[in-house]
Write a structure and sequence with these properties.
By secondary structure, this protein is α/β, with parallel strands linked by helices. Helix content is about 35%, strand content about 25%. The longest helix has 17 residues, at about 175-195. The structure holds adenosine-5'-triphosphate (ATP). This is ABC transporter ATP-binding protein.
Length: about 250
Protein backbone atom coordinates (compact mmCIF):
# COMPACT_ATOMS: atom_id res chain seq x y z
CA UNK A 1 0.00 0.00 0.00
CA UNK A 2 1.18 3.52 -0.74
CA UNK A 3 2.47 5.27 2.40
CA UNK A 4 0.82 8.51 3.47
CA UNK A 5 4.20 10.24 3.35
CA UNK A 6 7.10 9.11 1.22
CA UNK A 7 10.39 10.95 1.55
CA UNK A 8 12.86 9.71 -0.98
CA UNK A 9 16.57 10.53 -0.92
CA UNK A 10 16.32 14.19 0.08
CA UNK A 11 19.31 16.43 0.39
CA UNK A 12 19.01 19.75 2.20
CA UNK A 13 21.48 22.59 1.96
CA UNK A 14 21.48 25.68 4.21
CA UNK A 15 22.85 29.00 2.98
CA UNK A 16 23.79 27.43 -0.39
CA UNK A 17 26.77 25.66 1.13
CA UNK A 18 26.05 23.59 4.23
CA UNK A 19 24.89 20.11 3.27
CA UNK A 20 22.82 18.94 6.23
CA UNK A 21 20.64 16.09 4.94
CA UNK A 22 22.59 13.69 2.77
CA UNK A 23 19.93 11.54 1.15
CA UNK A 24 17.24 10.85 3.75
CA UNK A 25 14.47 8.39 2.88
CA UNK A 26 11.55 7.47 5.10
CA UNK A 27 7.96 6.36 4.90
CA UNK A 28 5.04 7.10 7.17
CA UNK A 29 2.04 4.81 6.77
CA UNK A 30 -1.48 6.16 7.25
CA UNK A 31 -2.40 5.73 10.92
CA UNK A 32 1.20 5.31 12.05
CA UNK A 33 3.30 6.91 14.75
CA UNK A 34 6.81 7.18 13.34
CA UNK A 35 9.74 8.53 15.34
CA UNK A 36 12.76 10.33 13.93
CA UNK A 37 15.55 9.79 16.43
CA UNK A 38 19.10 10.97 16.83
CA UNK A 39 21.27 13.35 18.79
CA UNK A 40 21.66 17.09 18.63
CA UNK A 41 22.16 18.32 15.10
CA UNK A 42 21.45 14.95 13.45
CA UNK A 43 18.92 16.55 11.10
CA UNK A 44 15.55 15.74 12.67
CA UNK A 45 14.14 19.26 12.64
CA UNK A 46 15.49 19.83 9.15
CA UNK A 47 13.67 16.72 7.93
CA UNK A 48 10.37 17.91 9.41
CA UNK A 49 10.89 21.39 7.97
CA UNK A 50 11.58 19.92 4.54
CA UNK A 51 8.24 18.09 4.66
CA UNK A 52 6.26 21.11 5.85
CA UNK A 53 8.14 23.43 3.49
CA UNK A 54 9.40 25.67 6.27
CA UNK A 55 13.03 25.67 5.20
CA UNK A 56 12.99 28.91 3.24
CA UNK A 57 12.76 31.09 6.33
CA UNK A 58 15.92 29.35 7.51
CA UNK A 59 17.71 29.85 4.17
CA UNK A 60 17.54 26.16 3.50
CA UNK A 61 16.40 24.22 0.43
CA UNK A 62 15.79 20.69 -0.73
CA UNK A 63 18.30 20.19 -3.55
CA UNK A 64 17.70 16.51 -4.33
CA UNK A 65 15.08 13.85 -3.82
CA UNK A 66 11.31 13.87 -3.63
CA UNK A 67 8.62 14.27 -0.98
CA UNK A 68 5.21 12.78 -1.70
CA UNK A 69 2.09 12.98 0.41
CA UNK A 70 -0.76 10.72 -0.67
CA UNK A 71 1.09 10.25 -3.93
CA UNK A 72 1.34 13.99 -4.66
CA UNK A 73 4.66 15.83 -4.92
CA UNK A 74 4.44 18.48 -2.22
CA UNK A 75 7.80 20.23 -2.42
CA UNK A 76 6.39 23.29 -4.12
CA UNK A 77 3.35 23.72 -1.93
CA UNK A 78 3.19 26.54 0.59
CA UNK A 79 2.66 25.78 4.29
CA UNK A 80 -1.01 26.94 4.04
CA UNK A 81 -1.52 24.59 1.05
CA UNK A 82 -0.14 21.81 3.20
CA UNK A 83 -2.39 22.64 6.14
CA UNK A 84 -5.32 22.51 3.73
CA UNK A 85 -4.27 18.98 2.76
CA UNK A 86 -4.03 18.00 6.40
CA UNK A 87 -0.30 18.33 7.07
CA UNK A 88 0.32 20.40 10.20
CA UNK A 89 3.58 21.01 12.03
CA UNK A 90 3.98 21.63 15.74
CA UNK A 91 7.29 23.39 16.08
CA UNK A 92 9.99 22.79 18.61
CA UNK A 93 9.77 25.10 21.60
CA UNK A 94 5.95 25.17 21.77
CA UNK A 95 5.03 28.19 19.72
CA UNK A 96 2.04 29.48 21.63
CA UNK A 97 1.06 33.11 21.37
CA UNK A 98 2.11 34.25 24.83
CA UNK A 99 -0.32 37.16 25.09
CA UNK A 100 -3.39 35.14 24.04
CA UNK A 101 -5.44 32.89 26.28
CA UNK A 102 -5.28 29.13 25.83
CA UNK A 103 -8.66 29.15 24.10
CA UNK A 104 -7.70 32.01 21.78
CA UNK A 105 -4.54 30.11 20.89
CA UNK A 106 -6.57 27.03 20.05
CA UNK A 107 -8.94 29.03 17.90
CA UNK A 108 -6.10 30.41 15.77
CA UNK A 109 -5.60 26.82 14.60
CA UNK A 110 -9.02 26.78 12.97
CA UNK A 111 -8.64 29.95 10.89
CA UNK A 112 -6.82 28.42 7.95
CA UNK A 113 -9.74 26.14 7.16
CA UNK A 114 -12.45 28.78 7.35
CA UNK A 115 -14.55 26.77 9.79
CA UNK A 116 -17.96 27.99 10.96
CA UNK A 117 -18.55 28.98 14.59
CA UNK A 118 -20.47 25.78 15.23
CA UNK A 119 -17.64 23.65 13.82
CA UNK A 120 -15.07 25.55 15.87
CA UNK A 121 -17.12 25.03 19.03
CA UNK A 122 -17.38 21.30 18.29
CA UNK A 123 -13.66 21.01 17.65
CA UNK A 124 -12.81 22.93 20.81
CA UNK A 125 -14.89 20.40 22.73
CA UNK A 126 -12.99 17.60 21.03
CA UNK A 127 -9.63 19.16 21.97
CA UNK A 128 -10.79 19.63 25.57
CA UNK A 129 -11.81 15.97 25.86
CA UNK A 130 -8.22 14.99 25.04
CA UNK A 131 -6.65 17.80 27.04
CA UNK A 132 -8.80 18.34 30.14
CA UNK A 133 -5.96 20.44 31.58
CA UNK A 134 -6.46 22.96 28.79
CA UNK A 135 -10.14 23.22 29.58
CA UNK A 136 -9.42 24.22 33.16
CA UNK A 137 -6.86 26.74 31.90
CA UNK A 138 -8.88 27.98 28.92
CA UNK A 139 -9.03 31.62 30.01
CA UNK A 140 -5.42 31.78 31.26
CA UNK A 141 -2.93 33.75 29.26
CA UNK A 142 -0.55 31.23 27.65
CA UNK A 143 2.49 33.04 29.05
CA UNK A 144 1.37 32.12 32.56
CA UNK A 145 0.77 28.43 31.93
CA UNK A 146 3.28 25.63 32.51
CA UNK A 147 5.61 24.18 29.87
CA UNK A 148 3.46 21.07 29.67
CA UNK A 149 0.29 23.10 29.19
CA UNK A 150 1.95 25.13 26.44
CA UNK A 151 3.04 21.97 24.65
CA UNK A 152 -0.51 20.64 24.93
CA UNK A 153 -1.82 23.94 23.66
CA UNK A 154 0.48 23.74 20.62
CA UNK A 155 -0.73 20.22 19.83
CA UNK A 156 -4.34 21.24 20.50
CA UNK A 157 -3.98 24.15 18.09
CA UNK A 158 -2.69 21.79 15.41
CA UNK A 159 -5.75 19.59 15.99
CA UNK A 160 -8.04 22.54 15.37
CA UNK A 161 -6.78 22.52 11.78
CA UNK A 162 -8.23 18.99 11.35
CA UNK A 163 -4.93 17.37 10.44
CA UNK A 164 -4.46 14.01 8.86
CA UNK A 165 -0.77 14.07 9.70
CA UNK A 166 0.96 16.00 12.47
CA UNK A 167 4.69 16.68 12.42
CA UNK A 168 5.72 17.00 16.03
CA UNK A 169 9.13 18.43 16.86
CA UNK A 170 10.66 17.38 20.21
CA UNK A 171 7.44 17.19 22.22
CA UNK A 172 9.37 16.14 25.35
CA UNK A 173 11.74 19.10 25.34
CA UNK A 174 12.03 20.79 28.72
CA UNK A 175 9.20 18.82 30.31
CA UNK A 176 9.22 16.77 33.51
CA UNK A 177 9.10 12.99 32.89
CA UNK A 178 5.55 12.65 34.19
CA UNK A 179 4.28 15.39 31.87
CA UNK A 180 6.16 13.83 28.95
CA UNK A 181 4.24 10.58 29.57
CA UNK A 182 1.00 12.54 29.72
CA UNK A 183 1.71 14.23 26.38
CA UNK A 184 2.69 10.96 24.70
CA UNK A 185 -0.37 9.21 26.10
CA UNK A 186 -2.53 11.84 24.46
CA UNK A 187 -0.62 11.43 21.17
CA UNK A 188 -1.34 7.71 21.35
CA UNK A 189 -5.01 8.38 22.05
CA UNK A 190 -5.34 10.84 19.18
CA UNK A 191 -3.71 8.32 16.90
CA UNK A 192 -6.03 5.51 17.99
CA UNK A 193 -9.31 7.44 18.20
CA UNK A 194 -9.01 10.36 15.79
CA UNK A 195 -6.84 8.45 13.29
CA UNK A 196 -4.19 11.17 13.27
CA UNK A 197 -0.87 10.02 11.82
CA UNK A 198 2.25 11.30 13.58
CA UNK A 199 5.83 11.86 12.46
CA UNK A 200 7.70 13.01 15.52
CA UNK A 201 11.28 14.09 16.11
CA UNK A 202 12.68 13.14 19.50
CA UNK A 203 16.02 13.10 21.25
CA UNK A 204 14.40 11.12 24.05
CA UNK A 205 14.71 7.69 22.40
CA UNK A 206 13.30 5.87 25.41
CA UNK A 207 9.97 7.62 25.41
CA UNK A 208 9.68 7.79 21.62
CA UNK A 209 10.22 4.06 21.18
CA UNK A 210 7.71 3.33 23.90
CA UNK A 211 4.91 5.03 21.95
CA UNK A 212 5.97 4.96 18.29
CA UNK A 213 5.33 2.01 16.00
CA UNK A 214 8.41 2.53 13.88
CA UNK A 215 11.63 4.51 14.18
CA UNK A 216 14.38 6.00 12.02
CA UNK A 217 17.71 6.90 13.57
CA UNK A 218 19.53 9.82 12.00
CA UNK A 219 23.21 10.58 12.36
CA UNK A 220 24.87 13.51 10.59
CA UNK A 221 22.07 13.80 8.07
CA UNK A 222 21.78 10.13 7.19
CA UNK A 223 19.44 7.34 8.30
CA UNK A 224 21.75 4.84 9.97
CA UNK A 225 19.10 2.42 11.20
CA UNK A 226 15.36 1.92 11.01
CA UNK A 227 12.90 -0.66 12.20
CA UNK A 228 9.84 -1.54 14.25
CA UNK A 229 10.00 0.21 17.62
CA UNK A 230 10.14 -3.09 19.48
CA UNK A 231 13.10 -4.32 17.41
CA UNK A 232 14.93 -1.02 17.92
CA UNK A 233 14.34 -1.17 21.67
CA UNK A 234 15.93 -4.59 21.77
CA UNK A 235 18.83 -3.77 19.44
CA UNK A 236 22.16 -3.81 21.29
CA UNK A 237 23.58 -0.75 19.50
CA UNK A 238 20.43 1.26 20.13
CA UNK A 239 20.51 0.22 23.78
CA UNK A 240 24.12 1.26 24.15
CA UNK A 241 24.16 4.49 22.17
CA UNK A 242 20.62 5.81 22.44
CA UNK A 243 18.90 4.24 25.42
CA UNK A 244 21.79 4.58 27.84
CA UNK A 245 21.77 0.90 28.82
CA UNK A 246 24.38 -1.68 27.92
P1 LIG B 1 18.18 19.43 17.50
O1 LIG B 1 17.62 18.37 18.35
O2 LIG B 1 19.36 20.11 18.11
O3 LIG B 1 17.16 20.36 16.94
P2 LIG B 1 18.21 18.14 14.95
O4 LIG B 1 18.50 16.69 14.78
O5 LIG B 1 16.80 18.55 14.88
O6 LIG B 1 18.85 18.64 16.29
P3 LIG B 1 18.70 20.10 12.94
O7 LIG B 1 18.16 21.20 13.76
O8 LIG B 1 17.93 19.61 11.79
O9 LIG B 1 19.06 18.86 13.87
O10 LIG B 1 20.16 20.54 12.46
C1 LIG B 1 20.96 19.73 11.61
C2 LIG B 1 22.22 20.50 11.25
O11 LIG B 1 21.86 21.62 10.45
C3 LIG B 1 23.00 21.04 12.44
O12 LIG B 1 24.36 20.86 12.17
C4 LIG B 1 22.63 22.50 12.46
O13 LIG B 1 23.69 23.26 12.97
C5 LIG B 1 22.39 22.80 11.00
N1 LIG B 1 21.39 23.88 10.82
C6 LIG B 1 20.13 23.89 11.27
N2 LIG B 1 19.48 25.01 10.93
C7 LIG B 1 20.38 25.75 10.21
C8 LIG B 1 20.33 27.02 9.55
N3 LIG B 1 19.22 27.76 9.56
N4 LIG B 1 21.44 27.45 8.92
C9 LIG B 1 22.56 26.68 8.91
N5 LIG B 1 22.67 25.49 9.49
C10 LIG B 1 21.60 25.01 10.14
Amino acid sequence: MQPLLNVNGIEVIYNHVILVLKGVSLQVPEGGIVALLGGNGAGKTTTLRAVSNLLKGERGEVTKGTIEYRGERIQNLTPPDLVERGVVQVMEGRRCFAHLSIEENLMTGAYTRGASRAEIARDLDMVYTYFPRLKTRRTSQAAYTSGGEQQMCAIGRALMAKPRMVLLDEPSMGLAPQIVEEVFNIVQDLNAKEKVTFLLAEQNTNIALKYAHYGYILESGRVVMDGEAKALRENEDVKEFYLGVS
